[in-house]
Amino acid sequence: MNDTHNSQLSKFYKRSLQERRDVIQTWVGSGRSVGEVLDGNLRVEQADSMVENAVGIYSLPLGIATNFLINQRDYLVPMVIEEPSVIAAASHAAKLFREGGGFHTSSDAPVMIGQIQVLDVPDLIGAVQRLDTVKAMLIAKANEVSGSILKRGGGVIDLEIRVFEDTEVGPMVIVHLLMDTRDAMGANAINTAVEYIAPDVAEISGGRTHLRILSNLTDRRKAKAWGIVPASALETENKDGYAVIKAIVEASVFAEVDPYRAATHNKGVMNGIDAVVMATGNDWRAVEAGAHAFAARRGAYTSLSTFRQNEAGDLYAEIELPLAVGIVGGATRVHPVAQLALDILGVTSAQELAEVIVAVGLAQNFAAVKALAGEGIQKGHMRMHARQIAMAAGATVEMVPLIVDTLIRENNIRLERATALVKQLNETEQDKR
Ligand code: MEV
Fold first, then answer.
1. Residue nearest to atom 6 of ligand 1 (CA)
2. Class for domain 2-107+226-375, per CATH?
3. Number of the ligand 1 atom closest to the C-alpha atom of 261
4. Is 90 exceeded by the pLDDT of residue 432?
5. What is the pLDDT of residues 407-416, one digit of tens each?
6. What is the distance between the alpha carbons of residues 276 and 213, in angstroms, rounded to a whole number?
7. Which of 220, 358, 387, 407 could make an S-S bridge to 225, C-beta 3.0–4.6 Å?
8. How far is C-alpha 419 from the geometric centre of its chain's CA atoms?
9. What is 380-432's CATH topology?
Protein backbone atom coordinates (compact mmCIF):
# COMPACT_ATOMS: atom_id res chain seq x y z
CA MET A 1 0.00 0.00 0.00
CA ASN A 2 2.80 2.41 0.90
CA ASP A 3 4.56 1.65 -2.36
CA THR A 4 2.72 4.51 -3.98
CA HIS A 5 3.55 6.84 -1.11
CA ASN A 6 6.32 9.37 -0.78
CA SER A 7 7.63 9.90 2.75
CA GLN A 8 9.29 13.21 1.85
CA LEU A 9 6.77 15.45 3.55
CA SER A 10 8.21 18.85 3.05
CA LYS A 11 8.06 21.11 6.14
CA PHE A 12 5.98 18.52 7.99
CA TYR A 13 7.11 20.06 11.28
CA LYS A 14 5.61 23.41 10.27
CA ARG A 15 2.13 22.00 9.77
CA SER A 16 -0.42 22.09 12.56
CA LEU A 17 -0.99 18.98 14.62
CA GLN A 18 -4.36 18.48 12.90
CA GLU A 19 -2.77 18.82 9.45
CA ARG A 20 -0.18 16.22 10.38
CA ARG A 21 -2.95 13.89 11.51
CA ASP A 22 -4.72 14.45 8.20
CA VAL A 23 -1.57 13.48 6.32
CA ILE A 24 -1.30 10.29 8.37
CA GLN A 25 -4.99 9.55 7.78
CA THR A 26 -4.43 9.75 4.02
CA TRP A 27 -1.30 7.62 4.38
CA VAL A 28 -3.06 4.77 6.24
CA GLY A 29 -6.32 5.01 4.28
CA SER A 30 -9.82 5.14 5.67
CA GLY A 31 -9.67 1.82 7.58
CA ARG A 32 -9.33 3.42 11.00
CA SER A 33 -9.71 6.96 12.25
CA VAL A 34 -6.27 8.25 13.20
CA GLY A 35 -7.76 11.01 15.36
CA GLU A 36 -10.01 8.61 17.24
CA VAL A 37 -7.21 6.14 17.91
CA LEU A 38 -4.82 8.84 19.09
CA ASP A 39 -7.34 10.62 21.26
CA GLY A 40 -8.84 7.39 22.59
CA ASN A 41 -5.40 5.86 23.14
CA LEU A 42 -4.99 3.00 25.59
CA ARG A 43 -7.97 2.85 27.94
CA VAL A 44 -7.53 2.32 31.63
CA GLU A 45 -9.62 -0.88 31.40
CA GLN A 46 -7.12 -2.22 28.85
CA ALA A 47 -4.22 -1.21 31.08
CA ASP A 48 -5.91 -3.12 33.88
CA SER A 49 -5.81 -6.29 31.83
CA MET A 50 -2.17 -5.72 30.83
CA VAL A 51 -0.45 -5.26 34.20
CA GLU A 52 -1.16 -5.88 37.85
CA ASN A 53 -2.30 -3.17 40.26
CA ALA A 54 -3.00 -0.77 37.40
CA VAL A 55 -4.13 2.69 38.43
CA GLY A 56 -3.83 4.66 35.19
CA ILE A 57 -2.04 5.40 31.95
CA TYR A 58 1.35 7.07 31.50
CA SER A 59 1.53 8.90 28.17
CA LEU A 60 4.48 9.84 25.97
CA PRO A 61 4.72 11.84 22.74
CA LEU A 62 4.22 10.00 19.46
CA GLY A 63 5.79 11.68 16.42
CA ILE A 64 6.44 10.74 12.81
CA ALA A 65 9.89 10.60 11.22
CA THR A 66 9.79 11.45 7.53
CA ASN A 67 11.98 10.84 4.46
CA PHE A 68 12.76 7.18 5.07
CA LEU A 69 13.53 5.21 1.93
CA ILE A 70 14.37 1.60 2.78
CA ASN A 71 14.99 -0.96 0.04
CA GLN A 72 13.43 1.48 -2.42
CA ARG A 73 10.23 1.73 -0.42
CA ASP A 74 8.99 4.82 1.40
CA TYR A 75 8.17 4.60 5.09
CA LEU A 76 6.76 7.07 7.57
CA VAL A 77 8.12 6.03 10.94
CA PRO A 78 6.14 6.39 14.17
CA MET A 79 8.40 7.11 17.13
CA VAL A 80 7.50 7.27 20.82
CA ILE A 81 10.03 9.26 22.80
CA GLU A 82 10.22 11.96 25.46
CA GLU A 83 13.52 13.43 24.21
CA PRO A 84 13.41 16.51 21.95
CA SER A 85 15.33 16.62 18.65
CA VAL A 86 15.37 12.84 18.11
CA ILE A 87 12.53 12.70 15.55
CA ALA A 88 13.79 15.77 13.68
CA ALA A 89 17.32 14.31 13.62
CA ALA A 90 16.11 10.93 12.28
CA SER A 91 14.09 12.67 9.55
CA HIS A 92 17.04 14.85 8.54
CA ALA A 93 19.41 11.88 8.47
CA ALA A 94 16.94 9.88 6.35
CA LYS A 95 16.89 12.77 3.89
CA LEU A 96 20.68 12.66 3.54
CA PHE A 97 20.79 8.86 3.12
CA ARG A 98 18.05 9.22 0.53
CA GLU A 99 20.47 11.23 -1.58
CA GLY A 100 22.69 8.14 -1.62
CA GLY A 101 19.82 5.80 -2.60
CA GLY A 102 18.27 5.26 0.82
CA PHE A 103 18.87 2.45 3.28
CA HIS A 104 19.47 -1.17 2.38
CA THR A 105 18.69 -3.88 4.87
CA SER A 106 18.78 -7.60 5.49
CA SER A 107 17.78 -9.82 8.40
CA ASP A 108 18.10 -13.35 9.72
CA ALA A 109 15.07 -15.58 10.06
CA PRO A 110 13.28 -14.73 13.34
CA VAL A 111 14.96 -17.42 15.43
CA MET A 112 14.76 -17.23 19.22
CA ILE A 113 17.05 -19.09 21.58
CA GLY A 114 15.65 -20.84 24.66
CA GLN A 115 18.07 -22.02 27.33
CA ILE A 116 17.85 -25.00 29.68
CA GLN A 117 20.44 -25.07 32.43
CA VAL A 118 21.41 -28.60 33.51
CA LEU A 119 23.33 -29.16 36.76
CA ASP A 120 24.58 -32.17 38.73
CA VAL A 121 25.37 -34.10 35.56
CA PRO A 122 27.30 -37.24 36.60
CA ASP A 123 28.87 -37.94 33.20
CA LEU A 124 29.33 -34.78 31.09
CA ILE A 125 30.60 -36.43 27.91
CA GLY A 126 27.96 -39.17 28.03
CA ALA A 127 25.19 -36.63 28.69
CA VAL A 128 26.21 -34.48 25.74
CA GLN A 129 26.37 -37.54 23.48
CA ARG A 130 22.98 -38.84 24.57
CA LEU A 131 21.32 -35.41 24.18
CA ASP A 132 22.86 -35.08 20.73
CA THR A 133 21.57 -38.53 19.70
CA VAL A 134 17.97 -37.71 20.68
CA LYS A 135 18.04 -34.20 19.29
CA ALA A 136 15.37 -34.92 16.66
CA MET A 137 13.05 -36.39 19.29
CA LEU A 138 13.49 -33.32 21.56
CA ILE A 139 12.81 -30.96 18.64
CA ALA A 140 9.67 -32.89 17.70
CA LYS A 141 8.53 -32.87 21.32
CA ALA A 142 9.07 -29.11 21.64
CA ASN A 143 7.04 -28.63 18.48
CA GLU A 144 4.08 -30.34 20.18
CA VAL A 145 3.53 -27.06 22.07
CA SER A 146 4.37 -24.71 19.18
CA GLY A 147 0.91 -24.97 17.56
CA SER A 148 0.14 -21.54 16.14
CA ILE A 149 3.74 -20.86 15.21
CA LEU A 150 3.98 -24.19 13.36
CA LYS A 151 0.83 -23.29 11.45
CA ARG A 152 2.50 -20.07 10.32
CA GLY A 153 5.52 -21.95 9.03
CA GLY A 154 7.78 -21.60 12.07
CA GLY A 155 8.69 -23.94 14.90
CA VAL A 156 11.75 -25.44 16.56
CA ILE A 157 14.52 -25.82 14.02
CA ASP A 158 17.51 -26.99 16.03
CA LEU A 159 18.98 -27.89 19.38
CA GLU A 160 22.51 -27.08 20.46
CA ILE A 161 24.49 -28.15 23.49
CA ARG A 162 27.04 -26.02 25.29
CA VAL A 163 29.19 -27.05 28.23
CA PHE A 164 30.77 -25.06 31.05
CA GLU A 165 33.03 -27.68 32.56
CA ASP A 166 34.09 -25.86 35.64
CA THR A 167 31.87 -23.30 37.36
CA GLU A 168 31.40 -22.32 40.99
CA VAL A 169 28.34 -24.58 41.13
CA GLY A 170 29.97 -27.46 39.29
CA PRO A 171 29.86 -28.49 35.64
CA MET A 172 26.96 -27.12 33.62
CA VAL A 173 25.33 -28.31 30.43
CA ILE A 174 23.32 -25.65 28.63
CA VAL A 175 20.81 -26.79 26.05
CA HIS A 176 19.81 -24.22 23.45
CA LEU A 177 16.52 -24.71 21.68
CA LEU A 178 16.28 -22.67 18.47
CA MET A 179 12.77 -21.72 17.40
CA ASP A 180 11.64 -19.74 14.38
CA THR A 181 8.82 -17.68 15.86
CA ARG A 182 7.75 -16.07 12.56
CA ASP A 183 5.86 -12.80 13.14
CA ALA A 184 5.80 -13.07 16.92
CA MET A 185 8.53 -11.72 19.17
CA GLY A 186 8.18 -15.24 20.52
CA ALA A 187 9.02 -14.96 24.21
CA ASN A 188 5.99 -16.96 25.31
CA ALA A 189 6.42 -19.59 22.63
CA ILE A 190 10.07 -20.28 23.36
CA ASN A 191 9.58 -20.21 27.15
CA THR A 192 6.71 -22.69 26.86
CA ALA A 193 8.84 -24.98 24.71
CA VAL A 194 11.88 -25.05 27.01
CA GLU A 195 9.72 -25.67 30.06
CA TYR A 196 7.96 -28.47 28.22
CA ILE A 197 11.05 -30.43 27.21
CA ALA A 198 13.07 -29.79 30.39
CA PRO A 199 11.94 -33.04 32.14
CA ASP A 200 13.13 -35.06 29.11
CA VAL A 201 16.43 -33.18 29.10
CA ALA A 202 16.87 -34.01 32.81
CA GLU A 203 16.13 -37.67 32.25
CA ILE A 204 18.39 -38.05 29.21
CA SER A 205 21.30 -36.13 30.72
CA GLY A 206 20.95 -37.72 34.15
CA GLY A 207 21.22 -34.23 35.60
CA ARG A 208 18.91 -31.69 37.21
CA THR A 209 17.37 -28.98 35.04
CA HIS A 210 17.30 -25.57 36.61
CA LEU A 211 16.58 -22.33 34.66
CA ARG A 212 14.42 -22.59 31.55
CA ILE A 213 14.12 -19.26 29.81
CA LEU A 214 14.82 -17.48 26.53
CA SER A 215 18.08 -15.64 25.93
CA ASN A 216 17.84 -11.95 25.12
CA LEU A 217 21.11 -12.23 23.23
CA THR A 218 19.05 -13.06 20.14
CA ASP A 219 22.06 -13.27 17.85
CA ARG A 220 20.27 -15.69 15.48
CA ARG A 221 17.82 -12.90 14.81
CA LYS A 222 19.97 -10.01 13.68
CA ALA A 223 19.00 -7.15 11.42
CA LYS A 224 21.44 -5.16 9.35
CA ALA A 225 21.25 -1.80 7.59
CA TRP A 226 23.71 0.06 5.42
CA GLY A 227 23.70 3.10 3.23
CA ILE A 228 25.65 5.89 1.62
CA VAL A 229 25.58 9.62 2.17
CA PRO A 230 27.22 11.41 -0.77
CA ALA A 231 30.04 13.78 0.18
CA SER A 232 28.18 16.52 -1.68
CA ALA A 233 25.25 16.20 0.76
CA LEU A 234 27.54 16.76 3.73
CA GLU A 235 29.09 20.07 2.75
CA THR A 236 28.71 22.83 5.33
CA GLU A 237 29.44 26.55 5.25
CA ASN A 238 33.02 26.08 6.36
CA LYS A 239 33.80 22.44 5.47
CA ASP A 240 33.68 20.45 2.27
CA GLY A 241 31.97 17.04 2.31
CA TYR A 242 35.29 15.15 2.55
CA ALA A 243 36.32 17.02 5.67
CA VAL A 244 32.94 16.22 7.24
CA ILE A 245 33.37 12.54 6.36
CA LYS A 246 36.85 12.52 7.90
CA ALA A 247 35.42 14.01 11.10
CA ILE A 248 32.63 11.40 11.17
CA VAL A 249 35.10 8.54 10.60
CA GLU A 250 37.27 9.82 13.46
CA ALA A 251 34.19 9.83 15.71
CA SER A 252 33.29 6.30 14.56
CA VAL A 253 36.74 4.94 15.36
CA PHE A 254 36.60 6.58 18.81
CA ALA A 255 33.46 4.51 19.56
CA GLU A 256 35.03 1.38 18.09
CA VAL A 257 38.07 1.51 20.41
CA ASP A 258 36.68 3.04 23.62
CA PRO A 259 33.82 1.46 25.59
CA TYR A 260 33.11 4.77 27.35
CA ARG A 261 32.37 6.40 24.01
CA ALA A 262 30.76 3.24 22.59
CA ALA A 263 28.10 3.31 25.33
CA THR A 264 27.07 6.84 24.34
CA HIS A 265 27.39 6.17 20.62
CA ASN A 266 25.11 3.14 21.03
CA LYS A 267 22.72 5.18 23.17
CA GLY A 268 22.31 7.37 20.10
CA VAL A 269 21.50 4.24 18.06
CA MET A 270 18.97 3.14 20.68
CA ASN A 271 17.27 6.57 20.70
CA GLY A 272 15.96 5.64 17.27
CA ILE A 273 15.50 1.93 17.83
CA ASP A 274 13.67 2.14 21.16
CA ALA A 275 11.34 4.84 19.89
CA VAL A 276 10.01 2.59 17.11
CA VAL A 277 10.09 -0.50 19.32
CA MET A 278 7.90 1.36 21.81
CA ALA A 279 5.59 2.82 19.19
CA THR A 280 4.87 -0.68 17.90
CA GLY A 281 4.21 -2.10 21.38
CA ASN A 282 7.34 -4.23 21.46
CA ASP A 283 9.58 -5.06 24.43
CA TRP A 284 12.32 -2.44 24.36
CA ARG A 285 14.09 -3.87 27.42
CA ALA A 286 14.59 -7.10 25.50
CA VAL A 287 15.94 -5.22 22.49
CA GLU A 288 18.23 -3.11 24.72
CA ALA A 289 19.56 -6.20 26.51
CA GLY A 290 20.28 -7.92 23.20
CA ALA A 291 21.91 -4.88 21.65
CA HIS A 292 24.36 -4.28 24.47
CA ALA A 293 25.22 -7.96 24.95
CA PHE A 294 25.92 -8.11 21.21
CA ALA A 295 28.06 -4.97 21.42
CA ALA A 296 30.23 -6.82 23.94
CA ARG A 297 30.34 -10.10 22.02
CA ARG A 298 34.08 -9.95 21.34
CA GLY A 299 34.91 -9.49 25.00
CA ALA A 300 35.22 -5.71 24.88
CA TYR A 301 32.18 -3.47 24.53
CA THR A 302 32.23 -1.65 21.20
CA SER A 303 30.05 0.34 18.81
CA LEU A 304 27.16 -1.28 16.95
CA SER A 305 27.82 0.75 13.80
CA THR A 306 30.74 1.85 11.67
CA PHE A 307 31.27 4.82 9.36
CA ARG A 308 33.94 4.89 6.67
CA GLN A 309 34.76 6.71 3.47
CA ASN A 310 34.14 4.47 0.46
CA GLU A 311 36.16 4.33 -2.75
CA ALA A 312 33.99 6.96 -4.39
CA GLY A 313 34.82 9.30 -1.50
CA ASP A 314 31.31 9.17 -0.01
CA LEU A 315 30.30 8.16 3.50
CA TYR A 316 29.42 4.48 3.95
CA ALA A 317 27.54 3.59 7.13
CA GLU A 318 26.66 0.15 8.46
CA ILE A 319 24.98 -1.32 11.53
CA GLU A 320 24.03 -4.78 12.74
CA LEU A 321 22.40 -5.95 15.93
CA PRO A 322 19.98 -8.56 17.29
CA LEU A 323 16.39 -7.35 17.02
CA ALA A 324 13.63 -9.50 18.46
CA VAL A 325 10.39 -7.73 17.60
CA GLY A 326 6.97 -8.93 16.53
CA ILE A 327 3.88 -7.71 14.75
CA VAL A 328 1.46 -10.11 16.44
CA GLY A 329 0.77 -10.87 20.09
CA GLY A 330 1.53 -8.99 23.29
CA ALA A 331 1.04 -5.24 23.43
CA THR A 332 1.24 -5.01 19.63
CA ARG A 333 -2.28 -6.45 19.64
CA VAL A 334 -3.74 -4.87 22.77
CA HIS A 335 -2.48 -1.30 22.39
CA PRO A 336 -4.58 0.63 19.84
CA VAL A 337 -1.77 3.10 19.11
CA ALA A 338 0.68 0.24 18.52
CA GLN A 339 -1.77 -1.12 15.94
CA LEU A 340 -1.93 2.29 14.29
CA ALA A 341 1.87 2.52 14.35
CA LEU A 342 2.08 -0.81 12.50
CA ASP A 343 -0.49 0.47 9.99
CA ILE A 344 1.55 3.62 9.39
CA LEU A 345 4.67 1.53 8.83
CA GLY A 346 2.73 -0.85 6.63
CA VAL A 347 5.05 -3.72 7.52
CA THR A 348 3.80 -7.22 6.81
CA SER A 349 6.31 -9.32 8.76
CA ALA A 350 8.39 -9.19 11.93
CA GLN A 351 11.51 -9.27 9.76
CA GLU A 352 10.41 -6.24 7.79
CA LEU A 353 9.71 -4.41 11.06
CA ALA A 354 13.18 -5.32 12.38
CA GLU A 355 14.75 -4.05 9.15
CA VAL A 356 12.93 -0.72 9.36
CA ILE A 357 13.95 -0.38 13.00
CA VAL A 358 17.62 -1.07 12.34
CA ALA A 359 17.62 1.53 9.54
CA VAL A 360 16.13 4.07 11.95
CA GLY A 361 18.88 3.18 14.44
CA LEU A 362 21.52 3.91 11.81
CA ALA A 363 19.86 7.18 10.81
CA GLN A 364 19.65 8.32 14.43
CA ASN A 365 23.22 7.37 15.14
CA PHE A 366 24.47 9.12 12.01
CA ALA A 367 22.61 12.30 12.93
CA ALA A 368 24.16 12.38 16.40
CA VAL A 369 27.68 11.58 15.21
CA LYS A 370 27.45 14.13 12.41
CA ALA A 371 26.33 16.83 14.85
CA LEU A 372 29.02 15.90 17.38
CA ALA A 373 31.71 15.83 14.70
CA GLY A 374 30.53 19.25 13.53
CA GLU A 375 29.13 22.02 15.64
CA GLY A 376 28.23 19.87 18.67
CA ILE A 377 24.71 18.94 19.71
CA GLN A 378 23.91 21.68 22.19
CA LYS A 379 23.03 24.31 19.62
CA GLY A 380 20.24 22.24 18.12
CA HIS A 381 19.04 21.04 21.50
CA MET A 382 18.90 24.48 23.04
CA ARG A 383 15.58 25.66 21.62
CA MET A 384 13.70 22.49 22.47
CA HIS A 385 15.29 22.41 25.90
CA ALA A 386 14.27 26.02 26.48
CA ARG A 387 10.69 25.16 25.46
CA GLN A 388 10.58 22.34 27.97
CA ILE A 389 11.98 24.57 30.71
CA ALA A 390 9.45 27.29 29.89
CA MET A 391 6.60 24.81 30.08
CA ALA A 392 7.93 23.30 33.29
CA ALA A 393 7.95 26.84 34.74
CA GLY A 394 4.23 27.10 34.02
CA ALA A 395 4.35 29.26 30.90
CA THR A 396 1.12 29.44 28.91
CA VAL A 397 1.19 28.55 25.20
CA GLU A 398 1.22 32.28 24.39
CA MET A 399 4.16 32.95 26.74
CA VAL A 400 6.40 30.13 25.47
CA PRO A 401 7.95 31.83 22.38
CA LEU A 402 8.87 34.97 24.30
CA ILE A 403 10.35 33.05 27.22
CA VAL A 404 12.30 30.73 24.90
CA ASP A 405 13.79 33.71 23.04
CA THR A 406 14.76 35.38 26.29
CA LEU A 407 16.34 32.26 27.78
CA ILE A 408 18.40 31.70 24.62
CA ARG A 409 19.41 35.34 24.24
CA GLU A 410 20.55 35.47 27.86
CA ASN A 411 22.25 32.09 27.48
CA ASN A 412 20.55 31.11 30.73
CA ILE A 413 18.23 28.15 30.11
CA ARG A 414 17.34 27.51 33.72
CA LEU A 415 14.12 26.81 35.55
CA GLU A 416 14.66 29.64 38.05
CA ARG A 417 15.02 32.19 35.26
CA ALA A 418 12.01 30.80 33.37
CA THR A 419 9.93 30.88 36.57
CA ALA A 420 10.89 34.51 37.15
CA LEU A 421 9.91 35.37 33.57
CA VAL A 422 6.54 33.63 33.92
CA LYS A 423 5.93 35.57 37.14
CA GLN A 424 6.89 38.80 35.45
CA LEU A 425 4.57 38.15 32.49
CA ASN A 426 1.70 37.20 34.80
CA GLU A 427 2.16 40.44 36.76
CA THR A 428 2.22 42.54 33.56
CA GLU A 429 -0.96 40.81 32.49
CA GLN A 430 -2.63 41.56 35.82
CA ASP A 431 -1.57 45.22 35.68
CA LYS A 432 -3.23 45.51 32.28
CA ARG A 433 -6.57 44.36 33.71
C1 MEV B 1 21.72 11.86 23.20
O2 MEV B 1 20.47 11.35 23.52
C3 MEV B 1 22.47 10.90 22.28
C4 MEV B 1 23.92 11.27 21.95
O5 MEV B 1 24.65 11.43 23.16
C6 MEV B 1 24.48 10.16 21.11
C7 MEV B 1 25.96 10.28 20.83
O8 MEV B 1 26.71 10.85 21.65
O9 MEV B 1 26.38 9.76 19.78
C10 MEV B 1 23.98 12.60 21.23
1. 268
2. alpha beta
3. 8
4. no
5. 999 999 999 9
6. 26
7. 358
8. 36
9. Helicase, Ruva Protein; domain 3 (1.10.8)
